[in-house]
Amino acid sequence: RGAAMLGGQVLLLLTGLAGSAGQGQERDLGGRDASVIAVTNGGPWGDWAWTEMCPKGSYASGVSFKVEVPQGVMEDDTALNGIRLHCSHGGDPSGGYTAESQSGRWGRWSETRWCPHRGHLVGFELQVQAPQRKLLSDEVAATSARFACSDGNVLEGPRSAWGQWGGWSPQCSGAVCGIQTRQDPAWGLKRDDTALNDLRLFCC
């Protein structure tokens, strides 16, 4: 009986891990049925923060990026700190609604980049510096992101010399309508800060 219970616990654990990978998983968020799209190259530090959705009936048509510029030799860089979705009804950006999960404390927000032709976001990829794990190395994790629009255009964040692009997420059959970030908290002098590590988007 004990072995059977243990087997069941392992199965539940594996099921939970498979769900947390996020690709195609169905979830009900704020009254909206949504599936998750993710990438495989996110950074390993921090925890998943809250999910935030566009208002019901709206979708993400634009995006802005919170980025800390390079700080120079012997300073702690964090690069990409946050992603903000800009939501619209039918591609009309005048509503001013945004969706933003947790963002890091460093850097400044870019101007909003919008999908042309009243398009909407359908996928993304991350540029990420793989863990260096060397003495005195400066870990930065996610450094930039790109977002695919429904008309084939790409919205790209500020360019970074750090990290590699990891490949595109699956594309939404509908449109992106929500966001969740994995954030490393601010450690101060205790250890290296990395801010944003990974990203999930929700499709409606």
TrEMBL record:
Which Gene Ontology cellular component terms are annotated?
A: extracellular space
Give the SUPFAM superfamilies listed for this entry. Answer: Vitelline membrane outer protein-I (VMO-I)
Checking InterPro entries in the record gives: VOMI, VOMI_sf
Which Pfam families does this chain map to?
VOMI
Superkingdom is: Eukaryota
The keyword Lipid biosynthesis is assigned to this record: no
- Residues of the signal peptide: 1-22
**Keyword Transcription regulation (UniProt):** no
- Please provide the record's keywords in A-Z order: Signal
Q: How is this protein named in the record?
A: VMO1 protein
**What species was this sequence derived from?**
Oceanites oceanicus
- Its gene? Vmo1_0
